[in-house]
Amino acid sequence: MTQHDDTIRLQHMLDHAREAVNMVEGKDRSDLKIDRMLELALVRLIEIIGEAAAKVSPEGKEKFSDLPWPQIIAMRNRLIHGYDAIDLDILWDTIEDDLPLLISELEKVLGKI
Questions:
Q1: 76 is catalytic
Q2: Catalytic: which of 12, 16, 76, 78?
């Protein structure tokens, strides 16, 4: 995989993380319980972030070791394989607490490329 491919994957991660954070703006956790389309959209965005992370080369992951690669990929795997038992509290906390930090890190990384 080339540096170019890694840059594209990192950009995909950033774009989808931003989209998820923007999607919950002005909403709260209870909205997930009543808005199935919101739930499905957020799950899909997190899956895409994890899939893009999984496709970053080992060299890219080493170069940008500040990013929590195993956790990002594990979240994707949990959503994909545990589709029938998604904990909406964890999904919400990921978007509210983890994605803003991920966005900040990805912006730094992409600013260096």
A1: yes
A2: 76
Range of the domain at 56: 3-112
pLDDT per residue, tens digit, the chain (113 aa), is 566 799 999 999 999 999 999 999 999 999 999 999 999 999 999 999 999 999 999 999 999 999 999 999 999 999 999 988 999 999 999 999 999 999 999 999 999 87
Report which DSSP code applies to 66.
Answer: T
Could you tell me the CA-to-CA distances from 28 to 23, 38, 58, 89, 101 in Å, in that order? 11, 11, 37, 11, 19
Residue 100 half-sphere exposure toward CB, CA atoms < 13 A? 8
Q: Which residues fall within 8 angstroms of residue 21, CB to CB, at 6 or more apart?
A: 95, 99, 100, 103
Q: What predicted TM-score, i.e. pTM, was given to this entire model?
A: 0.93
Total domains in the chain come to 1
